[in-house]
């Protein structure tokens, strides 16, 4: 009887061990990203034990004669990463490239390790600059814009709306304007793990493009640079802290405002990511974008910290006043002339935990368009600023919508949510802000222009 009990305990232990091993080897944290190359998609995922894992993918719904496609198998590369802060906590990060994808197809894929398999996901084959698919006026492209999103009860509300996004709305991709997870490194990386699982059903279906915020600055943004693989260029050493891409009639420029507030950021072990490095790249990027204005008249810049935002002048919050006061003024001195010279249409930011839409503005003064009303600008003559740092996180509202706004502040709200940019064609775009609490549209602005730039 004693011998049987020992065997039972051994088998129970073995079963628990095998179950744990299977769970640790199952791919998770799956997310997609565009790359600097057309017809290509980056797939990233994690395991907690060092197993080889493969992406299995095939095209579907291609509107051609072929009815069945075989799966292609791609081995992911694997990197061991200690995501722990106060203790060693190793995770294995995997990346694989899906090449040769076609814009007229959708792609079905799953990730298989030797001891675990992910769900099957589907993504659209459209990629930046691949062809004219984003210029199709019968199928305008849409981009989700969100900032300051974490997990927990607040972030989960927005994540629930994401699930509806996946099912019912056709979005080309998502841009997260910094402050991911709150924070990727918190609880020895567990917060980052939980966040990536929270957004996985969305991020595994559309490209989840990111940029760094102040909450990514721990250990020289190591968690950000290891977790996310953004577009490479000759200035960023492949670490994705600033980059750009083209979609149909629009150019998107992503910058890192944190270089102005954290002196020791580096691109790699060999080069400091000084503001001068990014500035040189930015000037070149915007100059090239303006040479292509006939083909791509829309120019959008996205960053974490705002150049303009309102704060309550009757409140005593030093944090709020600094963000929308001296910090914003400093960034205006750094960027506003450059944005004006290059006729940036919209500047999207976050950082402030509220939503605010601002008129076309230059030197702290509203610039009148050919026509303006509350929700429309026709032929604006200055950049429109939109602050969208209200995804929801453990810090909740660090700066509620002000009761004493500036005259240039058009709309403000504390409703958790995110925005969606729709580019219809070369002359018409729409931005909509959604409430995660009501699942309704709470603000819109249409921009119409008959010329390539102001």
Automatic annotation (TrEMBL):
Pfam families for this protein: Metallophos, Metallophos_C, Pur_ac_phosph_N
Occurrences of domain Purple acid phosphatase N-terminal (ranges): 27-123
PANTHER family linked: ACID PHOSPHATASE TYPE 7, PURPLE ACID PHOSPHATASE
CDD domains to which the protein is assigned, alphabetical: MPP_PAPs (cd00839)
Domain Calcineurin-like phosphoesterase residue range list: 142-355
Organism: Blepharisma stoltei
Enzyme nomenclature, EC number: 3.1.3.2
Name of the protein in question: Purple acid phosphatase
Leader sequence residues: 1-22
């Amino acid at each position: 009887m004693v011998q049987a009990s020992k065997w039972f305990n051994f088998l129970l232990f073995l079963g628990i061990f095998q179950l744990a091993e299977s769970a640790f080897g199952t791919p998770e944290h799956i997310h997609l990203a565009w790359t600097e190359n057309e017809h290509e998609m980056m797939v990233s995922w994690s395991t907690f034990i060092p197993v080889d894992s493969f992406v299995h993918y095939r095209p579907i719904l291609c509107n051609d004669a072929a009815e069945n496609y075989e799966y292609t198998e791609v081995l992911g590369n694997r990197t061991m990463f200690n995501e722990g802060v106060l203790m060693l906590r190793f995770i294995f990060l995997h990346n694989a490239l899906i090449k040769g994808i076609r814009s007229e197809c959708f792609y079905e894929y799953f990730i298989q390790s030797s001891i675990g398999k992910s769900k099957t996901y589907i993504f659209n084959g459209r990629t930046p600059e691949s062809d004219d698919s984003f210029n199709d006026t019968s199928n305008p492209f849409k981009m989700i814009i969100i900032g300051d999103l974490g997990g927990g009860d607040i972030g989960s509300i927005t994540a629930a709306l994401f699930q509806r996004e996946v099912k019912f709305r056709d979005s080309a991709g998502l841009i997260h304007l910094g402050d991911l997870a709150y924070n990727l490194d918190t609880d020895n990386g567990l917060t980052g793990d939980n966040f990536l699982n929270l957004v996985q059903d969305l991020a595994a279906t559309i490209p989840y493009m990111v940029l760094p915020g102040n909450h990514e600055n721990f250990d020289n943004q190591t968690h950000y640079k290891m977790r996310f693989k953004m577009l490479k260029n000759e200035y960023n050493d492949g670490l994705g802290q600033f980059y750009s891409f083209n979609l149909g009639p629009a150019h998107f420029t992503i910058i890192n405002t944190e270089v102005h507030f954290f002196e020791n950021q580096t691109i790699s072990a060999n080069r400091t990511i000084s503001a001068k490095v990014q500035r040189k790249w930015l000037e070149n990027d915007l100059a090239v974008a303006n040479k292509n204005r006939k083909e791509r008249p829309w120019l959008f810049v996205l960053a974490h910290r705002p150049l303009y935002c309102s704060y309550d002048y009757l409140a005593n919050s030093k944090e709020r006043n600094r963000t929308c006061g001296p910090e914003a003024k400093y960034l205006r001195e750094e960027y506003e002339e450059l944005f004006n010279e290059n006729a940036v249409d919209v500047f999207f930011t976050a950082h402030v935990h509220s939503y605010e839409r601002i008129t076309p503005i230059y030197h702290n003064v509203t610039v009148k368009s050919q026509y303006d009303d509350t929700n429309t600008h026709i032929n604006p003559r200055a950049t429109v600023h939109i602050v969208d740092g209200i995804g929801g996180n453990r810090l909740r509202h660090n700066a509620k919508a002000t009761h004493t706004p500036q005259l240039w502040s058009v709309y403000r709200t504390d409703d958790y949510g995110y925005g969606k940019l729709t580019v219809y064609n070369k002359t018409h775009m729409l931005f909509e802000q959604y409430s995660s609490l009501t699942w309704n549209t709470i603000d819109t602005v249409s921009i119409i222009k008959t010329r390539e730039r102001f």
